[in-house]
Amino acid sequence: MDGIGILVLFVLLVLFAVVVLTKTIRIVPQARAGVVERFGKYKGTLPAGLNLVVPFVDKVRYMIDLREQVVSFPPQPVITEDNLVVSIDTVIYFQVTDPVAATYEIANYIQAVEQLTMTTLRNIVGGMDLEETLTSRDEINSRLRGVLDEATGKWGIRVNRVELKGIDPPPSIKDSMEKQMRADREKRAVILTAEGQRQAAILTAEGGKQSAILTAEGDRESLILRAQADRESQILKAQGEGQAIQTVFQAIHDGSPDQALLAYQYLQMLPKIADGSANKVWVVPSEITKALEGLGSTIGGAQGIPVDNAGPRRRVDMGSDLPDAATISAESDKTLQNAHNEVAAAIAAAEASAAGGSRGSAKTRESPADPPTEGEEPPGR
C-alpha cells in the first residue's frame, strides 16, 4: 500500500473520530432539558451542562425550555349574557414542569393552551352581562386560571397567571357608554359643586356666628370694665369727699367755732345767694337767725347797744322791686364789711373783758374797727 492510500485512510479515521465525538458529547444550556430517544423510544432526559450519549444509538429528540413563558393570544369575539359581542385578548404566563409529559402527552402545548383559554373564556363571559364583564376582570382571571391549571397539569405545564389585555365592546355600545360616562361625570360635577357651595355657606355662617359672638363678648367685657371703672371712680370720689368732709369737720371741731364765726361765714355767702335774676324770695333759717342774734348780742354787749330778738325764721319778700345783681353785690359787700367790723369789735371786746377781769378793772378796750364807709351807719345800729 503506497503512502497516498495510507494518508487517505488516516484522514478518514480522523473524520470518523470527530463525528463520533460530536455524536457522543452533548451540551445542554441552562434552564433547558433534552429528551433522549434510543431507536425512537424515550431513553432519558439530559440536564443542563455536559452530557455523553451513545453515538448513532441515542438521539436528542427535543430541547424543552423550562423557563416561564408568556404567550399573547389574538382578540377573540365573545358573546355576553345580554347578547353583545365583545373582543377579548388574553395573555398566559405558564411554565413547563415535566419535559417528558410536555413532549409525549400533547403534540403542541402552546396551541392547546390557546384553544383551552378561548373556550373557557367564552363559558365564563357568557354568564355575565357587559357591565359585569367590564368590572369583573379579577374574577374572570381567577376562574380562567383555575380551569387552565387543572386541565394543563397532565401536560406537564403549570399556568401561573392569566390576564385580560383588553375588552372592546361594539362601536355603538362605546358611544352609549361615553354618553353615560359623560352624564355621570356631569352629575358628579354638579353634586360636588353643590356640596362645595353648601360647605362654603356653612363655613361662612359659622364664621359670622363666631364673629358676632366675639363682638358681643367684647362689647360685654367693655361695658363691664366701663361700669367697674365708673363704680371705682364714684367710690374714690365719695371717699375723697368723705375725707374732705371729715377733714373740714375735724378742722371745725378743733377750731371750736362760736355763733359769731358761723354768722360771719353766712354773711360771706350772701352775695353768692343773691347772685341771679331769678331769686325773688330769701328764706333765712332759724339757725342762722340765732347765730346772728348771738353775733348781735356779742356786738351789743361790747358796745352797749340793745339787741332785738328775732323770731325763728324771717321771710323777706322782695317782690317785683328786686334790685339787679350789681346792686345786690354792692349791698352784700357793704353788709360783709359791716359784719367784719362788728366781728372784729366783738372779738376785741371779748379780749378786753377777759383782760379787765383778771386785773379787777371794768375798763374795756374797743377794737380798732375799720371806719364805716360813706353812707353807712356805725356798726351795731
Protein model, in words:
This protein has about 375 residues and is α+β, with helices and mostly antiparallel strands. It folds into 3 domains: about 5-65, no CATH class; about 70-170, Tetrahydropterin Synthase, Chain A (2-Layer Sandwich), CATH 3.30.479; about 255-360, no CATH class. The protein has helices at about 5-25, 100-105, 110-125, 130-135, 135-150, 170-255, 260-275, 285-305, 325-360, and strands at about 25-30, 30-40, 40-45, 50, 60-65, 70, 75-80, 85-95, 155-170, 280-285, 315. The strands form 4 sheets. Strands 6, 7, 8 and 9 form a 4-stranded antiparallel β-sheet that branches. A 3-stranded antiparallel β-sheet has the order 3-2-5. A two-stranded antiparallel ribbon has the order 1-4. A hairpin with a 2-residue loop joins strand 2 and strand 3. Helix 3 (about 110-125) packs across helix 5, helix 7 (about 260-275) crosses helix 8 and helix 7 (about 260-275) packs antiparallel against helix 9 (about 325-360). The protein is rod-shaped. The N and C termini lie far apart (about 205 Å). Residues about 300-325 and about 355-380 have low confidence and may be disordered.
